[in-house]
Design brief:
By secondary structure, the chain is α/β, with parallel strands linked by helices. The chain has one domain: Aldolase class I (TIM Barrel, Alpha-Beta Barrel). Helix content is 38%, strand content 13%. It contains 14 helices and 12 strands. Strands 4-5-6-7-8-9-10-11 form an 8-stranded parallel β-barrel, surrounded by 7 helices. Helix 1 crosses helix 12, helix 1 crosses helix 13 and helix 8 packs antiparallel against helix 9. The longest helix is centred in the last third of the chain and has 21 residues. The relative contact order is 0.18.
Amino acid sequence: MLGRDVEGHYRYWNDVQLVHRALPEIDFADIDPSTTLLGRRLAAPLVITGMTGGFPDAAKINENLARAAAELGVAMGVGSERAAVLKGQYPESYACVARYDVPLKFANIGAPQIIPQAPGDPVVGPDLVRSAMELIHADLLAIHLNFLQEMVQPEGDRRARGSLDRIGELAATFPVLVKETGAGISREVAESLRDRKVRAFDVSGTGGTSFAAVEHYRALDQGAEREARVGKTFWDWGIPSPVSVLEVVGVGLPVIASGGIRSGLDVARAIALGASAAGTAGGVLKAAAAGYAETRRELETIVHELKVAMFLTGSRTLAELQKAPYVITGETRPWLRR
């Protein structure tokens, strides 16, 4: 959906204000944004969240992302591998990632694909999960929750019953991260997933790219008027990203904050709220579509901005940044009374 307005109508991360420290008492050169996430060392707490794959142009985009992630020492996921493992379509658009030494890689399958949608429909079970992980040499499997999208898609999968237990079955065999796709995860859902041995969460709350908006335009292009209206109605549906972070960090597992992360300042805000890392997609996708140099420059800028925020809060390490004071304002504040 490059070139179309698919952003949420409110920037919730702007409501998280880090308190400025006029005397940082540290040197900028001493700032260390490195961290360990899910057993892997990262140069910065940054994840390129799963975005694309399954069509010809995706190979170059994913290659640009993987090369930059490997060289800068940050994590990366790919878009849903449904096309490759269920239909055998464009596997190279994912497999190109395996050629790069990305320190932490996430395979990606949708929750609707792990339960039967209709009699005789193929279901992604352990063998296909293994194929999805091997395709990119993944460290973890991301199972994405995209039921809002499915409701807007004219051909969307409408069955969700049993997906929680199926996630638990897969988590008993594979290291699993559960990620939303723009509508956020509540504490209650996170607790139920933790109890089924999920390893981590990517909350992907509202305030960034609206996938209801993405599907709204797809439905318009297909002449599906009802679904197009549903996409417009639910454009901003979901839990704000900062709120979802605050809820899910209390569950006791690593949390990746995504949904509207556009700068290193947003990454710093997420870390201050308790996230282990932050995930970015939209801005990096535009850079990756342009070329490798643009991709690397965008990621380097995000990391530099994070370090500037650390300097201005007197935080030499991420552990210190997690203790930095902050104030929550705007439309995010009322959510904290939930």
